[in-house]
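Before relying on records like the one below, remember that each one covers exactly one chain. Contacts with other chains, cofactors or solvent are not represented anywhere in the record.
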Amino acid sequence: MSPTDAAALRALADTLPAEAPGTRLAWRAAVTVAEREALGTGPTGERFIVPITGGAFWGGPAHPQLHGHVRTGGADRQLLRADGIKELDALYELQVHDGTVITVRNHVRIDEAENPRYARSVVQVTAPAGPWAWLNRRVFVGTLHSLRPQAVAVLVSVFELV
């Protein structure tokens, strides 16, 4: 691409607004967990697994009908990198009050060196056909907070990009 083409493309792009997406709280989940188990050191860092033992979730103001429990059997795979960053890959199911089972995959990056602590995620959702299928058509991001010492659990807040 020539510099002239680049300038023309930028001029064209500058005619459109740079819109930052907004967010809307989709749901919050209090997820109970077992103790972290070490899996040994791999080529990219120390590996751990945290079994998910249950919990509850409830929809945000725009989705009050979305509520139920976190199913037992999921797990959070963790990688502690040499630079101190923790990467989490949690895979678990939410069972809505109507019996529908939704699969959640939550990719979290945590930087404990930041003040306040940085814990942000990209959340992928798979829902079956039916009233919750709209979840398959949205992009979600999230935050993660520990509920210790009061509970052996984490609070996951999931936001729909709007």
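Helices lie at 3-13.
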